[in-house]
Each structure stands twice: as structure tokens, then as C-alpha cells.
Amino acid sequence: MKRYVVPVFMLIVLLVLQSADLLAQEVSSGRGGQPEPPVLGIHWARGFVHASKPGGGGSPDMTWHGGGILTNTATATIFWGTSWSNPTFVGDKISGLDLWYAGISASSYGATSDEYTGSNGQVTDSISFNGHYIDTTAAPTHAPRTSTILNEVCRVIPNPVSDGYYAVYVDTPRGGAGYCAWHSYGSCGTTPVQFAFFFNLDGDPGCDPQSTITTESQGLAALANVSGHELSEARTDPRGSGWYDSSGQENGDKCAWTFGGAYVTFPNGTNWKIQGNWSNYAYDHSTGYPNSVGQKGCVDGANFPGPFTN
Length: 310
Known about the structure:
Blueprint: H1 6-27, E1 40-44, E2 63-64, E3 73-80, H2 87-90, H3 93-103, E4 117-118, E5 121-122, E6 127-135, H4 146-156, E7 164-173, E8 179-188, E9 191-200, H5 218-236, E10 243-244, E11 264-265, E12 271-272, E13 277-278, H6 280-284, E14 289-290, E15 296-299
Parallel strand pairs: 3-6, 3-7, 7-9
Antiparallel strand pairs: 1-8, 2-10, 4-5, 8-9, 11-12, 13-15, 14-15
Helix pairs in contact: 3-5
């Protein structure tokens, strides 16, 4: 029987090119020929075929690349788009994410990133939450440039700080984009900032952690999971010179779509289904759970193997 392998190959190529085309909006030149802030820690949708950097072989552990980390993190959220004025659309997403960001500090999940050090000290799970902002002007209707999200942060946040992490949640579904979220960095005036972008994930199976927690909507559960991924990466690799492995994967990337248990519990009593983060310590001491390729270096707080050392 003749095998038709070319159409399958072509489909994979088209998917990769589609993703590259959508992400090109973020890495192309910005105004005045200035480069766009880089896209870091892309949280690819479940099962999406994408091009990746080749690994260097040897240990899967992450290594330090000479730069800083976030020793403390000051967070705030921005909900951008006309739908955020619609109570039906909002549902429990804003109130739920308020609880998420208010609860992560000093949590066992937050501590899964604490083993990593940088030129300015060690990551700690001291994470403050400075509230949310609602911007009901129209958000981008497609995958945005990184500079578009940075400009929104600088416009909405009244007094950004250098250890700030500003998460922008739009009301735009991801459509054909192959990813759920990403993080990046830039400056508001002379103040360096870290920021992240999140699509609306309501009814999106590709970005759904399939949580069984009945007190949360599917849309909130999906945003909470990808929020954990991006915040963990921003704390350990805020500006592209922190911690990642030989293929460029950060601690959230290495454990994407793998979970140590049904949920993790924050100190404020809330429960969340959140993917684990990569721990060099856990992999080296065989105390983690396996990621998607079987490397036992993932921890999510429920299976916390500490104390961590590096």
C-alpha cells in the first residue's frame, strides 16, 4: 500500500510556520527601528507542534547565564478589553486571580522557584500583590507585539517598580495562535519592568489544565495555571540572562502540562491546579515527578522535596 507521508509533513510545517508568523509580530522591529522586547517562556498550547532549539545533551538541569533574578516580586494585574465591563464575561476571573496573586506569597508552590540565585541574590517567595487595574479600551484582536503589552503596562501602572511583574489579561481568544501566554521585559521610562501576556482562555481545550476544583470556572482555572508558569519563569529568568537549560527552556517550560497532583493549596486557603516547575535539586536527588519526557525534576508544592540548595 502506498503511504502518503507528505501531507502529514506539510501539516506539521504549516503549523510551525503559522506559529512563527504569529510570533513575528512580537519580535519584529518596533517604532523607530528599535527592537521589540524578546518573547520568553512561551507557554505553548497542549499538544501544539512547534520548532524548538536543539538541546546540548548531558544533564537536563538548568544553568545560570550570568544575570539577575527577582529576589522579591511586586505583582499587579491588568484586565484589558471591552469585555471586562461585562459581568457575564468577567464571572469569577478577576476575583479569582486576585485571590491567586494574594495567596502565592510564602506558598509551597512559590517556594519551588527559590533554589535559584543570580548576580543580585537568591529568588525568594516574597511576592506582594498590589491589586488589579481594569482598562475597558479595545485590546488587540490578534497576537500582539511585545511592545504593545509593554506600552499598556507603562500607561496603566501609575508607579512601576524595578522588581515589578505586571500581568496583562486580554479578552481576546487565542484563535490560531499556538500558545497561551508568554513573559518579557522592558522599561517604563528609566524603570526596568517585567511583564506577561495572557489570552482569554474561556472554552479553550488547548490551554485547559482540566481542573476538578468545582468552585472555579474553567476560564479561571486555565488562567491560574498559565499564570503560575509565567510568574515562575519571570522570577528565575526575568530578563533573559537567568536560569534555563541548553535548549533555552525555563523552569516552567520544562514541566509544562504535567502535574504532581490534583491541586496545590495556598496559605489563604485557596486550591489551584497548577503545573510544576523544574528543580535542579529535585532532579539531582530523584525527588521530583516526571515531566513530559520522563525527567524526574518537576515539583509543584504538593510534592515539595526541599529544603532546596543550589
